[in-house]
Amino acid sequence: MRYFPIIGCIITFLIMATGFFPIMSEAQDMLLVQRSDLAKRFIYREGEMIRLMVIDGTRVSGEIKGIGDSTMHISDYGEVPYSRISMVCRRSRGFSLLSEVFLKAGIPYFLISTLNRGINNDQPVVPEETIWISSGLTVTGLLFCPLSVRKFRVEGGRWKLVTLLPDDEIR
Fold first, then answer.
1. DSSP 8-state code for residue 166
2. Of 6, 13, 71, 159, which has the maximum CB count within 10 A?
3. pLDDT tens by residue, 88-146
4. DSSP code of 171?
5. Torsion angle defined by CA atoms of residues 59, 65, 67 and 70, in that order, rounded to the nearest 10 degrees
6. b (16+ CB within 10 A) / e for 104-142
């Protein structure tokens, strides 16, 4: 009697492992931006946003609608052959978050400090240190903005584009 729950769990596991229930996930086409000398890669799937630059200097951004052998379809742009892609841009989460935090902290600090001194009738209403601190926070946030975008040069660089299709090998 005390072994019935264990036996039930084992039977349920075996039924699920043998494929009695249909698999809920399906294989997707993937585009890898992979560094050729290291095992560093970034994966893009259908439905994700991508930003890239084409050889003629045109910036393309949008949702990936389809990934094929030699081209990918991007919403609001159309088909982009892999041979025409010169650079893939990706937002760095850390620097992007720091930039956003500093930018959003500078102005509220200034407003709260000024309102507090105005309500309490303190003079001067806007002290010099409030200006220095709030402007320092805002400028620091602006300085993090260029660092928040990583650019992977595909044409003539260390990075290359690799497509993974469900039934095929690496191309």
1. T
2. 159
3. 998 888 899 999 999 999 989 999 999 999 998 888 888 899 999 999 999 999 999 98
4. -
5. -50
6. ebbeebbeebbeebeeeeeeeeeeeebeebbeebbebbe
